[in-house]
Amino acid sequence: MSEHRQHGRVPAILLVLLLGASMGVTLTAATHPEATHVDSPTFDGATNLPPPAAGVFGTASAVASTSAVGSSFSARPATSGPGYGSVAETLDFINDTLLHGNFTSVEDGVEPMQAAADVAHGVLFVADAGSSTVSVVNTTNGTVTGRIVLTGVPVALTVDPALNELLVVTTPAPALGEDSGNVTVIVATTDDVSAHIPLNGTPDAATFDSATGNLYVSLEDAADVPVVNLTTDSVQTSVPLDYPSAAIAYDPTNGEIYVASDVSSNVSVIQGSNNSLVAVLGVGSEPDGIQTLAGTNFVYVADRGADLLTILDGSDNEVVSSVPLSFGPNALAADSAVGLVFAVNTTGNDMAAINYRTQTVITTTGVGIGPTGLAFDSANGDLYVADSSSDNVTVVDAAARTTTGTIQLGLVPVASAYDRAANELGVVFSDENSLWIYNATTDVRILSLAVGIDPVAVAYDLKNECFYVANDGSSSVTVFNGSTDALATTVPVASGPDALAYASAYDYIFVADGNLAPATSAITEIDGANNQVVGTLPVGSDDPVSSLVYDATNGNLYAGAAHSIVVVDPTSRAVVSSIHDDQNASILAVDPTSGEVLASSRLNLLGGFNGNLSIIDPATNQVLTNLSIADCTSGIDFDSQVGLAYVSSACTNVVSVVNVSEATVVGTLSVGVDPAGISDDGAGGQVFVTDTGSATLSIVTLPNIGRYPVEFSEHGLPSAQSWTVTMSGHQVSSTATSLVIVEPDGTFQFNVTAVAGYAATPNASSVSVQDAFASVTIAFAPLPPTYAVLFQETGLPSGANWSVLWGSSKNVTSDGTSLTIDSGNGTFAWTVSTVAGYAATTLKSSATVAGAPLTINLTFQATNSVSGSTGASGLAAYGAVVGYGIAGVAALVGAVAGAALGRGRARGPSSGTPPPEPVASAPDASAVEPPPPA
């Protein structure tokens, strides 16, 4: 997808209001670590850590001495009842779609089932059944370069090298109104869908016939094989069989197609040149895979029910032998260069290499969990195993039969942070080593940025408008400038940064180095003014720091280690206190109003799950109270605008909501699978939860101050037809049957962009949003056909304007010799306009349109008129004037003027001052008055 954007900034007055409302607010972007944001005036950034800026938080000692625990909540909204919010929408990262309410996709979200190698372009395509996508993998570096979103579940892939197309067979998608399978044709070099071919049944596999250019599809619920013509993108014919089928393969040696039926335990043979059934062969039991090998004339059948590899001779289509296996194979691949056939063992998580000459199993190679598909790349000699349960592809060197790498397909979002200046959300993905930026209003991804290895945390600096990403695997911090949408720099830090905290009182980013040796854990200081490391702070813990938060009320940093929470004073650069913690790997947040620190953890010391939230007094660093919450907490955020803490639970898939001032749990929210990081928008409207297990973002909206999805649903358009809705300046398009635009409470006007050949009802209206999801249904109806009515004229001078009124409302003008009117069927009256000096021989008439274009010829003739006179004498006068030329016209005008003057004098002098007497001069023939008219 395109990631180009125009960066919009918040108006100055709005930014001032936002800053004023949020001054002194701490925003926590939490995951395994916590990233904390505090707004305050900019500091100049000295080499040594400066004291906090005066006038905002005061000095650390003064604030700490007057801090009142649990105070200053009187102005906050009430949190009783449902006031803590709900999951209003879910952003599915894999499909890049926004869904209403709390949506949970399959765990891990991908579930690769099959793969196909595009040898010519060095690309591997993987069918992801769990997410209805195709992952596009660069086989050179083993990275996912893109995902193609489908409308059904992909079950088979093949590549047509002649047409440079990827052919994806999908099962029906009832939710999208599809009741049969499809073949989706994709341009392999651009990943653009070029055709969508319906099938009469549910497909299970497919094979490409390189001799005829046809695609053959096996159907699990119909006893025939559709033959798809890829030139016309249509089903050309179907070959009838006795039973439904489960696998299919093309043999380039004899031009035949082999179709395995797991119901009848036989293999049907189709001649590709004439699509005739030429043989039916009995094999083992429940054949579930089939593979041909060019140049050998042998066909290999995976008999899953009999634990056999059955071998057919393609020259006479006879069963020649079988190889016993210790498992039921269900996917095959072959490499003729090394003389091996490979069979996948789905339940054993391995793959057997079979020497087809000696018909023996020679080695077994371990792969991922639940392998279901195989693809061989003859260009690099690698096998690619689609591991459905571990969401990855295992790469195996076919010649050496050893695993050389793993390609992770699933998305693992681990943390997020909100950019209030640009209204954007940054989400970190640990598996893709990337930072994705989303428009927080439309929830549309606008760019992606490669960061370091294994990013685990993200923080945002409101002053320099930069995102900071902690890269645990590459010991660095990536700095992305949100105002310029560009990588600012990469800052090397000590080993394994696990947590970030931002304090704008210093304009510093603090980085917790989590993988140092015992007793050497430290906090690195990065100056936000120049993004340089300016020093380190001691932690004095034998355990690595996994969480970090800055408390603006006392100026201290709180570092969560395995068995304690270490309190560090950045000004004195010393450890102030250590709070004993019976928990393990504490995660932290802070209430910026009271300064209370919130601490929870994933595990307790005995290794069991923990469901505890501690509230710590910042003045004494003592635990005030412990609250029981959902087990195995994984992320925490305090929304200072509403006084609520949100704590995620990885094992129960919920978020506990805590009223910190009252020390009570007010409710829980169901979210996605394995929720981790939590952040909020700083305005009390939304809380963002990254769900690592389902690759989603749960968006929690608070009543009265949040935003809610408005879902537009259409019916009547063809499948995959694009349509667009515009509302409040947000223009959203979709090729699915629904789209979502998110708005706050209010009434909003919307418009539906016209789709050629269809009328939308309504095409413009309004919708009201009142603390809840809203929906609008758009009905598209085909417009009646129209036909071109062509009017052609002769007789008018070049460039003359003329027009025709068709019926009672269509009026078309032209300055050429023709004009066209689009009309439906029927009989219509028409009228031709008058043109100065010309008239049509037929001014009015009628015509009938009956399912075909129509042509009407018009003739214009010059009329006999000058200055309004008509008739033969007028036409003669017009000709005389033309004949005179310029001089003649001047003389005629003078004569006419003289005649008028003479007529005036004959009537006698007019009232008023008399004209002066004429001066005598020689007679002028041109001035002689003509005689008065008779």
Give the helix/strand layout.
Elements (H helix, E strand, L loop, with lengths): L11 H11 L3 E5 L3 E5 L21 H7 L19 E7 L4 E4 L11 E7 L4 E6 L4 E6 L4 E7 L3 E8 L4 E7 L10 E6 L4 E7 L4 E7 L4 E6 L4 E6 L4 E7 L6 E5 L4 E6 L4 E6 L4 E7 L4 E7 L4 E6 L4 E6 L4 E7 L7 E4 L4 E6 L4 E6 L4 E7 L4 E7 L4 E6 L4 E6 L4 E7 L4 E7 L4 E6 L4 E6 L4 E7 L4 E7 L4 E6 L4 E6 L4 E7 L4 E7 L4 E6 L8 E6 L4 E7 L8 E5 L4 E5 L3 E6 L4 E7 L2 E8 L6 E8 L7 E6 L4 E7 L4 E7 L4 E6 L4 E6 L4 E7 L4 E6 L5 E6 L4 E6 L5 E9 L7 E5 L2 E5 L3 E7 L1 E7 L5 E4 L2 E6 L4 E9 L4 E8 L7 E5 L3 E5 L3 E6 L2 E7 L5 E3 L3 E6 L4 E9 L2 E2 L2 E2 L1 H35 L28
Parallel strand pairs: 60-67, 68-75
Antiparallel strand pairs: 1-2, 3-4, 3-59, 5-6, 6-7, 7-8, 9-10, 10-11, 11-12, 13-14, 14-15, 15-16, 17-18, 18-19, 19-20, 21-22, 22-23, 23-24, 25-26, 26-27, 27-28, 29-30, 30-31, 31-32, 33-34, 34-35, 35-36, 37-38, 38-39, 39-40, 41-42, 42-43, 43-44, 45-46, 46-47, 47-48, 49-50, 50-51, 51-52, 53-54, ...
Question: What report would you give on this structure?
Answer:
There is one protein chain. This protein has 934 residues and is mainly beta. The protein is built from three helices and 77 strands. The strands form 20 sheets. The chain has a five-stranded antiparallel sheet, with no helix packed on it. Strands 5-6-7-8 form a four-stranded antiparallel sheet, with no helix packed on it. A hairpin with a 4-residue loop joins strand 23 and strand 24. The longest helix is centred in the C-terminal third of the chain and has 35 residues. The protein is flat and about 100 Å long.
